[in-house]
Write a structure and sequence with these properties.
- The structure is a single chain.
- The chain is an all-alpha fold.
- It contains 15 helices and no strands.
- About 70% of the residues lie in helices and about 0% in strands.
- The longest helix is centred in the middle third of the chain and has 39 residues, at about 215-255.
- It is globular.
- Pfam families: BPD_transp_1.
Length: about 375
């Protein structure tokens, strides 16, 4: 087991390096990088940013000379070469791409993510600032979805073909078919002061002044703010996990060892939870890492936007839109590590569920 864990940890190094290399290469061909955006803003589209980039100095636009008219991109037209060089140096684009990439990797190994291009804050502080929202949405949605879906899936497997199985399947399939953002909008209209009732809050994770609340009231306020976002996010997850659980149990129930256990006189509960459960849960455990990472980062983007929750999903989208590369690469790096580590934890959970698995015999 120890050798397997070490192999997996060592394999993470080239995997993360490859992810970062491909992503860095793609950004080199993406139009409208940070330098181009800064130069466009300096040309008059954003005076405030222009003053920030130039340090509040008295930089003025120069007449576009022949060199500017034949420039490599239009944002340079009308700006002095000295100012262009200063902006390129500020964003680190005065160095060759390979040197910039190797420097970024060396800094990331030390978890030094630098400063955001457009925010006066370090990237790591920015991520930490947004983390509570994403943790709240991803963790609670995944735990609640699996906490409900596993018992429901077992019940559906035991009553396969019954009325209970049919109507619950109808409900969860309809819930899966409806996009989460439509559910979110409907919940706002119905329960957040849209057109009917104003029961649940709409913004943030806490009410104004929540820091001064007693602990019990602070917890209730926190839960109250999460009811609508978690409901909107959870419908699709309920369907996937429930049907996966049901099908896994149905597959195991039909096997010979279950028939033998019943022939020995074991109770149905003992057969189900003492024999079937362990084998049927293998697929459920395998699906957990992807569900968690998806809910933690990508899956919460629209929900964060609709409910005005400033989390990592919205941060990543905003960073890509504005070409804030330090934030883009830092979030990619962190979530790549998290995804690989959770995959390893999933394999270890396999062994806990079924000790017959021998990881030491695996070559990769």
């Amino acid at each position: 087991m120890g050798a397997y864990i070490i192999r997996r940890l060592l394999l993470m190094i080239p995997t993360i390096f490859g992810i970062m290399a491909v992503s860095f290469l793609i950004t080199q061909f993406a139009p409208g990088g940070p330098v181009e955006q800064a130069l466009a803003n300096l040309s008059g589209q954003n005076v405030a940013l222009a003053e920030r980039v130039t340090g509040g100095g008295q930089e003025t636009l120069s007449q576009a000379g022949p060199h500017d008219q034949a420039g490599t991109y239009r944002g340079r037209q009308g700006l002095s070469p000295e100012l262009v060089e200063r902006i390129e140096k500020q964003f680190g684009f005065d160095k060759p791409p390979l040197e910039r990439f190797l420097s970024m990797i060396w800094n990331y190994v030390r978890f030094d993510f630098g400063q955001s291009y457009y925010r006066d804050i370090s990237v790591i502080d920015l991520i930490i600032e947004k983390m509570p929202v994403s943790i709240s949405l991803g963790l609670w949605m995944t735990l609640i979805a699996y906490g409900v879906s596993i018992p429901l899936g077992i019940a559906k497997a035991r009553r396969d073909g019954s009325r209970f199985d049919v109507w619950t399947s109808t409900v969860i399939i309809v819930g899966y078919a409806v996009p989460g953002f439509l559910v979110a909008i409907a919940l706002i209209v119905l329960f957040a002061g849209g057109s009917f009732w104003s029961i649940f809050p709409l913004r943030g994770l806490h009410s104004p002044g929540a820091a001064s609340f007693p602990f019990w009231r602070w917890v209730l306020d926190y839960i109250w703010h999460l009811v609508l976002p978690i409901t909107a996010m959870g419908l699709g997850a309920f369907a996937t996990a429930t049907l996966l659980t049901k099908n896994s149990f149905l597959d195991e129930i039909s096997k010979q060892y279950v028939v033998t256990a019943r022939a020995k006189g074991l109770t149905e509960r003992r057969v189900l939870y003492g024999h079937v459960f362990r084998n049927a849960m293998m697929l459920i455990i395998a699906s957990f890492p992807g569900a968690f990472i998806g809910a933690f980062f990508g899956g919460s983007l629209l929900i964060e936007t609709i409910f005005s929750l400033d989390g990592l999903g919205f941060l990543g989208f905003e960073a890509i839109s504005t070409r804030d590369y330090p934030v883009v690469f830092a979030t990619l790096y962190i979530f790549s590590i998290l995804g690989l580590l959770i995959g390893l934890i999933s394999d270890l959970a396999y062994m806990w569920v079924d000790p017959r698995l021998d990881f030491e015999s695996r070559q990769t």
